[in-house]
Design brief:
Radius of gyration: 22 Å
Structural class: alpha/beta
Shape: globular
Number of strands: 7
Strand order of the largest sheet: 4-3-5-6-7
Strand content: 5-15%
Distance between the termini: 33 Å
Number of helices: 11
Helix content: 40-55%
């Protein structure tokens, strides 16, 4: 939580609100933000009254973002698999690397972990999965390539945690807009692996990440299937797996509700 708790008796800290906000901002950049557990409320000012004396609390409008994200998930993942992002991954010569870092946070960490396992199995590379803050405080001189998984491409902890690494040695795997990523990170356009397409511009909204996990992981799954010449249609496989897990999750929810 980006919250600063002030307690003179325990910590003997005396910071102004602005100073505390700046400090919190620096911490969040390094370790990543966390979602709110409690519901968010809006304080509404009443006409002709000071909010110090009287105000109205309104619950913010509830949007079923999970439903929207899940309903669009199949289309988004299939678009990602058939995007130029896969060509970019396929053009990387992994045979010349001895070791690689796969970096992510949140849902992107799961995608980074899966992808590192695929590359290790295919090429025998020492593929290490790390959080951005772990990258910052280790010696990375012997690492050949760093693959950064970020749904937006501009995740603060990803940028801060890897800023000491040369942009030439980094690839960002993202759905973010290329120009925005270049402006914020300074990374070369050729090092941005984007699965964003003309038909796949819409992004997930909300705390839970589905597409940000499945889409990049599916790109590496496709590479594994093609490299090992498995008789699997990746598009059909994704469709069937999504249907399967919808059924399983519905059964789990039914059991829990009983």
């Amino acid at each position: 939580f980006s919250v600063f708790i002030k307690n003179h008796n325990v910590y003997d800290i005396d910071l102004s609100y602005n100073e505390a906000t700046k400090l919190t901002s620096k911490v969040v950049k390094c370790v990543g933000a966390r979602g709110h557990i409690n519901k968010l409320y809006k304080v509404k000012k009443l006409k002709n009254e000071c909010t110090c004396a009287n105000y109205e609390i309104q619950t913010r409008k509830k949007i079923k973002r999970c439903n929207l994200n899940i309903n669009n998930l199949e289309t988004r993942v299939l678009n990602a698999i058939n995007s130029k992002g896969y060509e970019n991954i396929n053009n990387i010569n992994f045979n010349i690397f001895n070791s690689c870092l796969f970096v992510g946070t949140g849902g992107s960490l799961a995608a980074a972990k899966f992808s590192s396992i695929v590359i290790n199995k295919l090429y025998g590379i020492n593929a290490i999965t790390l959080l951005p803050r772990d990258v910052k405080y280790r010696n990375n001189n012997k690492i050949d390539k760093k693959f950064l998984f970020s749904y937006s491409g501009t995740t603060n902890d990803i940028i801060e945690g890897t800023k000491d690494i040369s942009n030439n040695n980094k690839h960002i795997i993202t759905k973010g807009e290329t120009q925005k990523i270049i402006l914020k990170t300074g990374i070369n356009k050729t090092n941005i692996i984007s699965y964003r397409t003309i038909n796949n511009k819409g992004k997930e909204r909300g705390f839970l990440s589905f597409e940000g996990t499945l889409s990049p992981a599916s790109l590496f799954l496709k590479k594994y299937i093609e490299e090992t010449k498995l008789d699997i249609n990746i598009n059909q496989f994704v469709k069937e797996r999504l249907i399967y897990w919808q059924i399983i999750l519905k059964l789990i929810l039914k059991i829990i509700s009983q």
